Amino acid sequence: MNEIIIATKNRGKAKEYNQLFNEYGITVKSLLDLSEEIPDVEETGDTFKENARLKAEQISRLLEIPVLADDSGLVIDALDGRPGVYSARYAGEPTDDKKNYEKVLNELTEVPSQSRTARFVCVLALAIPQGETVFKEGFCEGIIAESPVGGNGFGYDPIFIPEGFEKTMAQLEDEEKNKISHRYHALMKMKTWLNVKLGKGESNE
């Protein structure tokens, strides 16, 4: 595996993955780096895992090289798991972060703080031609705040207070956030798998 495509057009996300794979001598490219236009993959799955699989496998078949895709979102216990796989478009199209979290806060109006438990979930899918797709999952536990606070981050960060903190994800510095995020935990599991696959260590899973 000398080259891998990250199924994203988000440069920040591609940079994170580049840092992970760089130590293995694997060249990382995002969809923005390709000369050909890759059609959007319709996310029709009912779970994060299904959507991550759809993106990774369809693009891998098209390009005939390994492709890493992720699907992530916010799961709120008091809302029976919503917004879940619909996190990005919870308030409808076009996607709007502010409208999304305002809808969540409105639905939680009568819910007391101790019952506002939630978690960010990230599922990574690594599709390898002529091989089995590898999945790794990461979580960040927390609670939903009463109102949005903070100007960093994106998505639901302004209303999500991570476990062990008294401020929202949007109040954390990038370095601090990256050490506790759901994507970080999923990436560390993928790193463990890569160490074993490439003979650089033993799995602790």
From TrEMBL:
Binding site for substrate: 8-13, 72, 154-157, 177, 182-183
Database matches in InterPro entries: dITP/XTP_pyrophosphatase (IPR020922), ITPase-like_fam (IPR029001), RdgB/HAM1 (IPR002637)
Gene Ontology molecular function: dITP diphosphatase activity; ITP diphosphatase activity; metal ion binding; nucleotide binding; ribonucleoside triphosphate phosphatase activity; XTP diphosphatase activity
A Pfam family it matches: Ham1p_like
Listed cofactors: Mg(2+)
Enzyme class: hydrolase
Gene Ontology BP term (one): nucleotide metabolic process
Cofactor: binding comment: Binds 1 Mg(2+) ion per subunit.
Alphabetically ordered keywords of this record: Hydrolase, Magnesium, Metal-binding, Nucleotide metabolism, Nucleotide-binding
Catalytically driven reaction(s): XTP + H2O = XMP + diphosphate + H(+); ITP + H2O = IMP + diphosphate + H(+); dITP + H2O = dIMP + diphosphate + H(+)
Stored CDD domains: HAM1
EC numbers on record: 3.6.1.66
Positions of the catalytic residues: 71
Sequence positions that bind Mg(2+): 42, 71
Role according to the record: Pyrophosphatase that catalyzes the hydrolysis of nucleoside triphosphates to their monophosphate derivatives, with a high preference for the non-canonical purine nucleotides XTP (xanthosine triphosphate), dITP (deoxyinosine triphosphate) and ITP. Seems to function as a house-cleaning enzyme that removes non-canonical purine nucleotides from the nucleotide pool, thus preventing their incorporation into DNA/RNA and avoiding chromosomal lesions.
PANTHER family reported in the protein's UniProt record: INOSINE TRIPHOSPHATE PYROPHOSPHATASE (PTHR11067:SF9), INOSINE TRIPHOSPHATE PYROPHOSPHATASE/HAM1 PROTEIN (PTHR11067)
Name recorded for this polypeptide: dITP/XTP pyrophosphatase
Organism of this sequence: Pseudogracilibacillus auburnensis
Lineage: Bacteria, Bacillati, Bacillota, Bacilli, Bacillales
